[in-house]
Amino acid sequence: MPPWNSAKAKVFLDLDYFIITTTVCSVFLKVQLRLSVQRLRTLQEKKEAQAKSARRDIASLVERGKIETARIKVEGIISEDIHLELLELLELYCELLLARFGVLDQNGREPDPAVIEGVCSIIYAAPRTELKELNVLREILMHKYGRDFSAMVMENRGSCVSDRVVHKLDIATPSTELVDAYLAEITKAYGVPWSSAAATNGGDGPEGSLKDATAQSDMVLPGIGAKFASNISTTPKLPDIQDEITKIQSIQPEDDFDLLTKRFAALKRG
Questions:
Q1: CA angle 28, 33, 38 (to 5 degrees)
Q2: Rounded to whole angstroms, how far apart are CA atoms 74 and 187?
Q3: C-alpha to C-alpha distance for 200 and 191, rounded to whole angstroms
Q4: How far, in Å, CA of 248 to CA of 45, rounded?
């Protein structure tokens, strides 16, 4: 056996150190991928709960006629939704690297084509997230593939990063149409009357779009028949009986009118 200070012994020691280091890095990489998936899921659930609360606040603002304030908050909701989609993509890439870990664990200056999209997307997008685990995973991948490859990814040379990830990281002001679409869905979900046309005419205040939308929702529609009459007969208070008789007379047959007249007379006596 060669002495420990000989050149051959040093080669053996270096080889053992390389094997141990490579094994430890592989284990650490796999553990970090699993941690990143768990933390990404937890963060998505947290952001979804926050978005639900923010949507409820926006519906309340619209109900009080604070349309412009609601629009500003909707822009924040849109940005959070885009960021949430980015987190979902990064979670998918982490799961992909776990599923193809045998390919990822191969030694080479660049990742295998089967995993290169996931590796590049994580290295490129991790700094734009608040997850410590994902940033640690990024450092491991950058160390594994070297400085030159990491610089190429950060500059997105050759469009190595997924276009979906790059798009989610773009900073842009949402269009008016998109804001109106979000407002329409939020108000519809919470049963608040609102329309973009009424908001444009009414402005920001209690006497704007909300009043117009409420007035439109309270219009009497023709062709509702005896069902409408029975609903009116059970109403404890009527704002103006004579006006209601006049309206219904213009849209109801003679028999329905006679029936309504008798019921209104009974209500007067009561």
A1: 125
A2: 12
A3: 20
A4: 52
